Amino acid sequence: MTFPETYRNLLENDILEDYSMGYASEIGFRASICTPFNFYDLDLDVSTKLSLVPFMLMDGTMKDYMKLNPKESVQRAKELIDEVKAVNGTFVTLWHNQSVNDKEEWQGWRDVYEQIVAYAVKDIPTKTHAHEK
Q: What does pTM read for this prediction?
């Protein structure tokens, strides 16, 4: 990725959302925010239609960089989820196909994913439709 060229290329190709804003080697808020925001092109001094959706957590970050075990990973994720919920933000994670296949080095990580998702959606009010009473 090369900035701002990468974002300009996305816009030129009618791609209006990007989910690559995050850290590879640590968990947390790379953009210092947990809410999508539009890319502002400083060179052109213009706000664009490209929505940047930052992610806070990646499977490989916890396992490979931070050397966390599954239990520790779930706990760290819950802490982040609580921070995001406290400000009504958007909690975004990045998971690779192999990390949820529960095979070889990723054994036990599908459960990590499922626990994180379950915790993230806990206590979120469900929307009711007009025809439901």
A: 0.84
